[in-house]
Design brief:
Fructose-1,6-Bisphosphatase, Chain A, domain 1, binds 2,5-anhydro-1,6-di-O-phosphono-D-mannitol, 7 helices, D-Maltodextrin-Binding Protein, domain 2, FBPase_N, alpha+beta, FBPtase, 17 strands, single chain, binds magnesium ion, magnesium, 2 domains
Length: 337
Amino acid sequence: MPELKFDEIKAGQGEDLHTLTRWVLSQQQHAPEATGDLTILLTAIQFGCKFVASKVKQAGLINLLGLTGAANVQGEEVKKLDVLANDIFRNALIASGKACLLVSEEDENAMIIQNPKQRGKYIVTFDPLDGSSNIDCGVSIGTIFGIFKVKDDKNPNSSDLIRSGREIVAAGYCMYGSYCEMILSLGNGVNGFTLDPSIGEFIMTHPNITIPPKGKIYSVNEGNYKYFDEPSKKYVDHVKSKYTARYVGSMVSDVHRTLLYGGIFGYPADSKSKRGKLRILYEVFPMAFLIEQAGGKATTGTKNALDIVPEHIHDRSGIWLGSKDDVAELEAFYKKK
Ligand code: AHM
Ligand code: MG
């Protein structure tokens, strides 16, 4: 047999090319107790995001813009894309066989997977299409999700949902913007993956994201200023002359910019929306978890956002989040009060 020549692959070569799937698998390999269930669940979420991303791009062409004519449980007008995105995620999560309870912004009740053969140990809370008011004008929107573990998969019940954000095991969002980006944390930092539509894969483009400790941008719907409480008003007055204002009106996009550039985003409770606008289980908790994992802070003003315990699945809360020094400055206004 002729002697073959071999080219040597150096240690580390190729290691920094991560698709989302490969990265999640590598995390599973580092956790000896892992069963692979979370990996399968995240694959289902990834599939849902790719599906929704493609529909968002085609929306103007295939009659997917506009209202359905119905309102959701929160009395908000439902867009066609909201309904489609909800169906996509619900079906993908059920098909994964790894979910047990599902909570969606679009559904009044939590969903329980009855068939023990289809049921896994995870609870997924999600806003299938966040930023509804921006759908029809083509401005960035997104999907937000939080993942908890059920306490006893033989007996899932309300206590699995009425719990603090400290018990979240993974969270993320996918932004459908000028590029499509998935931001994910499994509780050991935050990583970002950009969808390459030509190959249909999320590729790691933002490893180990850390939010700058202080920024120069404040992001809040100042149209609500007159309804804000005194500390929020005073904080906005304080940053106004020093910072730049940016407000998309899609939480995913405003949080994404805050994560990458630093600064602060807020939707405080006010005299009009006494409990705030953003929903705890599928907007506040996942975003607070990601921001903390990236080294930032999330607060209601007086309480760490992850320490809230909702009473109902659609409960809302005021929220300020972002660079830790900026959020600490905001909190100081609440302490003074
Ligand atoms: P939605 O889930 O119905 O889209 O509502 C949530 C959105 C967030 O994305 C955003 O931060 C906020 O509502 C914007 O509200 P407003 O239009 O009052 O500024
Ligand atoms: Mg939303």
